[in-house]
Prior knowledge:
Blueprint: H1 19-39, H2 46-53, H3 57-63, H4 67-90, H5 95-112, H6 114-126, H7 131-148, H8 162-180, H9 185-199
Helix pairs in contact: 1-2, 1-4, 4-5, 4-6, 4-7, 5-7, 5-8, 5-9, 6-8, 7-8, 8-9
Amino acid sequence: MKSKAAADPLKPRKQPGQRRSAETVSAILEASARILEDAGFEGYTTNRVAELAGVSIGSLYQYFPNKDSITRALIVREMEQALRDVEGAAAGAIGRDCLGRMVAAAVANQLRRPVLARLLDVEEARLPPDAAVEKMGDEMDGLFRRCLTADDLPPAARAAEAVGDLIAIIRGMVDAAGRRGETDSTALLERVNRAVFGYLSL
């Protein structure tokens, strides 16, 4: 007799079906984001999250079985926003213009909350793989790949590893800028563009 697959310990206990429930989940996720930004991993506890969100610890556990479950939901929230931003920037554009718009959107998204973005990158690598996160990552890769296949870009842009390299360049440079406390998004974007287009020999 086959055993049932183990339940995902990070899966939310229930999905918000009504507006009030959705507002509670939103408050929990935003409280988590603010604590990570202000106190880092050391100050990130479910009790502090519940307190800042203005809900009881029992209410928090109605939706999330543990802290990692909250973190995963926060990663999904931030990735959804990043995907919307980059997808919107790429709409109707091709080739070099498309790539430039997507780079600008990706940099702006990472700089929107740089401390949070950096910490969630760490947590995403630590937590078990998640189908929703992987799907959005594939969609992001697909957006970049579509831009890189245009005729006005060199053959290097169509190499299998190009998408991963470019995303690593963008994320690495923005994370480093965040650690240094940089706030000049224009200067950072210029540097990232030089790195990205230099990688493509443009």
